[in-house]
Amino acid sequence: MKVLFIAAEASPFVKIGGLGDVIGSLPKALKAEGVEARVGLPLYSS
To answer: What is the CB neighbour count within 10 angstroms for residue 11?
Structure first.
């Protein structure tokens, strides 16, 4: 199975609230279960 997460934040790159923690850790947990998981983030200016 392949999963693509699109989010406004992901730890450790951009983290404001709990969403960043989930998007940062959930794909890693899914990968351990054999799922191909990727994360897409907007390109914020610095």
So the answer is: 15
**Entry pTM:** 0.75
End-to-end Cα distance, the chain: 34
Nearest Cα to Cα of residue 1 among 32, 42, 35, 25: 35
Q: Report the distance separating Cα 8 and Cα 16, nearest Å.
A: 9
Q: What is the pLDDT of residues 28-39, one digit of tens each?
A: 999 999 999 999
* Owner of token pair 């990727």: 38
Cα–Cα distance between 2 and 23 in angstroms, integer? 15
At 1-12, the pLDDT tens digits run 999 999 999 888
